[in-house]
Every structure is written in structure tokens, then in C-alpha cells.
Target: Glutamate--tRNA ligase
Amino acid sequence: MTIVRWAPSPTGRIHLGNARPALLNWFFARRKGGKYVLRMDDTDLARSTREFADGIEVDLAWLGITPDLLVRQSERTDLYDAARDRLIADGRLYPCYETAGELDRRRARARALGRPPIYDRAALKLTDEDRARLESEGRKPHWRFKLDGRPVQFEDLIKGPQTVNTASMSDPVLIREDGSYLYTLPSVVDDIDLAITHVIRGEDHVSNTGTQIEIIEALGGTVPIFAHHNLLTDAQGQGFSKRLGSQSLADFRDEGYEALAVAIMASITGTSLPVEPYASLDEIAERLDFSMISHGSARFDPVELDGLNARLLHAMSYEDALHRLTSLGLEGEAIWLSLRDNLTKFNDIKDLAKLITGPVEPVIADEDREFLALAKAMLPAEPWSIDTWSEWTGALKTTTGRKGKALFLPLRLALTGRHDGPELKSLLPLVGRTGCLDRLP
Model:
């Protein structure tokens, strides 16, 4: 069975950049009939909170993603401890006692000598007596994984054949001085334990993959298939970031955007599929293949989001809108059909509905008063239909000789107080004859 995982850190609200891999994993799992694991990477106890974790679940549900399994790394420490002990016993994890300052000086010296600033494995030369002396001085070790130092090759489902040469890398620190785990070891252990078959994530992780494959192999695990997608950037080409305060999914939700519009923008941008309305996430899952993902960056355009959001609303059926209309105190299919084509965000309908229910402040130019008085006198008798507007304006055109803007705009301004808005042919029957009489001078 195909099993994927999306692994956010609950250190803030997730943004569009986070939503991209969340959705691409979901599409892949749906397409393959597989399993979707939500893994909270909450080992950073200083920054991770349950509030942020709960927020992530809310955001996923809003997008339309329902994980098959939720795990929290903070509850799985025993697994990581066992992997740590095995790597130590096998000589692949070794203690180091250098301070951050000492490491910085070594890197600076290496650069000055024209050498790559990678760790020199000095800690491997320490004797038991050396380590005892350092610990008696109060030093606590951090632990590094001893890389094989070889070309690690893998086939990427998006980027094609990849090679990461771990000989050009420092042995990575897996455990901090305080005994807490960095990202890499828990991630690998979880991928093995949860039988993850495919790791779908941003291309900024390609360089990590060689290290992770070596650790997986050292622990006797099965190496998953990797797929590294292009990264979503903002309109200025800047990557989304919690630290930079990038707009979160919660912000988009609070601003009234449709979840599907946000999902389409987060996932389809930077692919060969058109950014246009789709019926559901499942339709995208059926159509989006990894071969369609560009190797260049994917730039998010907020103007494009506004347009897409509007197009989704303009195509929304009354049945799909009914519950939300009711929550706003609006009823009737005719109201929805007459107003939806003027919506950018759903809640805009609350103000637009006032064009029907009132109050409306008519805008009446002095030079149009005589014309509007005649229009009032010529209002057709009820019942009114979709044809009433053309019948009324046709009669006014014949009587006054007015046409085009000179005919229609004074009527629109008097009846709605706006230069633009819903078509008056559909609005007029909803306002009714009495309502129109009240607005005309």
C-alpha cells in the first residue's frame, strides 16, 4: 500500500508554502488509494505548542484533507532512543565536545586555507581519558552520525535521477548537548516505523536526502521513494516563512476566501495544469501528475487568487450555497442567482443583498430628475418577471429618445446607489414595484 506523510512543525500557523506539500501528498495518496499520515514534528519543545498543532488540524480540515493517522513525535521518544542506542553500538553515532565557538573558528580556518568547511571528525580521535576529562570540565557531548562519504543515488519522481555526495558534507548532528533530537533522526525512525513508501516534500530537502538514506540503511530500514517539488513563493519571489510572518491559511479563511481557491493556488501554481476552477480536490488528484510540476519556482499571485475565488463563487450552485446563505439570514434561489456573479468573496453577498432589501441611498443628478419622475410614472404593473426591465426601458427609450448610458445609468444609480452591480433585469423582480417606487424621486 502507498503510505505518505506530511510532517509540519507546530511552531506557528501554516501558510501557503506549507499547504503545497500537504496537498501534493494528499493528491498522491488519493490517486493511489493509499494512506495519509499527519505527523506532528513537535520535538522542539521550546517552540511547539498544542494550540498550533490543533490549528494545523483545523487548517487541513478546511482545505478538505482528512488524515488517516495522526502521530506526534513528542509521544514517540522511546523509538528514537532505541535507534540512538543501536547507532551508538554500531559505531555510527559518536560524541563530540566542541563548542559552537570552536566549530566556527575551525570552519573559518578551513575557508582561509581553501578547504571545504566540513567537520574534521576530530572527536573520533578522542580517547576514553580525553572524553572523561572534557566531561569533568562540564562539557556535554552532542552526537554526530558518521557518514559513509559516498555518492548516494536515488530516483526522484519529480526531478529525475539525483546524486548527493555525502563525502562533501559534515557528519550531521542528530542529538543536541541537552539530549534532545534534531529533525533528522526522529524523521527517519518514523518513516521506517510507519512504513512510509513515498516522501513528497520541497526541493530544499534534496541535500538532506543523502544523509537520510544512509541513516535508514544503517537502521536496516527500507528506503522510501522521494519526490521533491518546486517551492511556492510570494509575488515578490520570496519564500513563505512562519518567521517572516507570511500570511497563514487562517488569515485567508478569516478574509473570506474559499478553501478550494486557496488549495488550487497552493498546489496547481507552478504546474502545467491551468489555474482555474476545479470541482474538488479529487478532480485535481485525478488530473495532476508529478510530470506536470515545473522545475522552476512557483510564484503565487494574490490577484490571481481573487479572480479564481470569484470564478468559483460565480459557478456555485444554490444547493452548495444554501447553508451559508441561511447563516447570513438570506433565503431564496433567486437572490443567490441574481447576486453571485458580482461576488469576489462569499460574505460580500450580505452587502449586495441590501440592494434588494434596502436601505439604499439613491444617487440622483439634478439633470435626471425629470427623466426619473417619468420613469416612476411608467413603472409597469406587477407581476414582474425577468423581462420587466427590458419592457420598462424599451418604453422609456421610445418616449424620451434616451439610449445607452444616458438611459440606463440614471436608473441604476437611483435604484441601487451604485455605478455597477448585479444585472437589473434579475434584480428588479426581487426589489418589487413598491421598492422601486420608494427609490425613484
